[in-house]
């Protein structure tokens, strides 16, 4: 009997559609991703959420009534043009946040679909660091799939535009919710317990169900996003490291001040304890309504 995991066409130059059966539709992405038919086009866009390949047509397509995330699996040019047009070439008025690596935009796509797009900063002084984070995030999010981890729909690597496309989570970041008096009041004890449980499930999956284990290294309330049902989703995998067997797994320090264990500032070893300490700080922040550090500062003053 043919096993679903035995399908591997990754090094064949196939271009025609895959057979419509379970063996192919449920095959692991790794078994497909090297196939030239999946590798986008000159725009550099890749889709990671596909199930099968469709040959690119020469005829222009009407995308108004189609799922844009499906279109990306076989026509990156259409996806790229839609994103640029929807943001007016990444106009700042579509921005919903900014971090060290890039700016995040809310993008309304055809057929009323919404996505979050993180465009990397292109300045020369940070481009190499951003490229490393860009690669780490793609590597991690194409390996992990869990309901409490943000979904990566695709990415674009281009000289002018380099960005990642995620599912859009309407609730926003946990930090913004806790710092807003009205929204924080709406986040009652039942919802707060649900948030902490969601983060714990994501980390348990990454540490124990992934082989080799995946270490996030930057768990903070700013990197926890909520949907409309207050389900937590871990995001921002730019500092992630995948533990290599029979290796010291040493690397440079990473994390957010106030969430990383002090001792990890003096060591280069990466392990699960990095995330466990940060998770504890997030859990305390959810319970107290603010970061424990600010509470201690208030008492001391």
Structure description:
With 301 residues, the protein is an alpha+beta fold. It has helices spanning 22-25, 68-71, 76-86, 127-141, 174-179, 181-186, 189-209, 272-288, 292-300, and strands at 45-47, 95-98, 102-109, 113-120, 152-157, 162-167, 172-173, 214-215, 224-226, 232-234, 241-242. The termini are far apart. The model is unreliable at 1-15, 28-43 and 49-63 (pLDDT under 50).
C-alpha-based Rg, rounded: 20 Å
Strand segment tally? 11
Neighbour order of strands in the largest sheet: 1-5-6-4-3-2
Largest sheet: 6 strands, antiparallel
Helix content: 25-40%
Reading the helices and strands in chain order gives: HEHHEEEHEEEHHHEEEEHH
Overall form = globular
Structural class: alpha+beta
Low-confidence spans: pLDDT under 50, at least 5 residues?
1-15, 28-43, 49-63
Strand proportion, as a percent range, falls in 15-25%
Distance between the termini: 71 Å
């Amino acid at each position: 009997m043919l096993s679903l995991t035995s399908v591997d066409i990754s090094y064949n130059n196939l271009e025609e559609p895959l057979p419509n059966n379970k063996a192919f539709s449920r095959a692991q992405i790794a078994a497909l991703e090297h196939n030239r038919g999946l590798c986008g086009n000159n725009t550099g866009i890749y889709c990671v959420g596909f199930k099968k390949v469709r040959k690119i047509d020469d005829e222009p397509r009407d995308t108004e009534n189609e799922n844009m995330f499906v279109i990306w699996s076989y026509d990156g040019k259409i996806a790229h043009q839609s994103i640029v047009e929807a943001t007016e070439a990444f106009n700042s008025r579509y921005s919903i946040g900014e971090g060290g690596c890039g700016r995040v935009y809310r993008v309304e796509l055809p057929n009323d679909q919404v996505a979050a797009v993180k465009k990397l900063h292109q300045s020369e002084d940070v481009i190499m660091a951003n490229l490393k984070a860009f690669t780490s995030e793609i590597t991690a999010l194409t390996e992990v799939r869990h309901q409490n981890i943000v979904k990566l729909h695709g990415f674009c690597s281009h000289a002018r535009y380099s960005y990642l496309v995620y599912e859009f989570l309407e609730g926003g970041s946990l930090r913004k919710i806790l710092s807003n008096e009205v929204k924080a009041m709406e986040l009652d004890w039942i919802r707060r317990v649900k948030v902490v449980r969601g983060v714990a499930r994501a980390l348990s999956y990454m540490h124990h169900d992934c082989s080799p284990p995946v270490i996030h290294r930057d768990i903070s309330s700013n990197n926890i996003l909520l949907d409309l049902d207050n389900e937590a989703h871990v995001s921002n995998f730019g500092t992630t490291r995948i533990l290599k067997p029979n290796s010291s797994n040493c690397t440079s320090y990473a994390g957010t001040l106030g969430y990383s264990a002090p001792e990890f500032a003096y060591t280069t070893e990466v392990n699960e304890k990095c995330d466990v300490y940060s998770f504890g700080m997030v859990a305390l922040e959810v319970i107290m309504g603010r970061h424990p550090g600010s509470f201690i500062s208030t008492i001391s003053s």
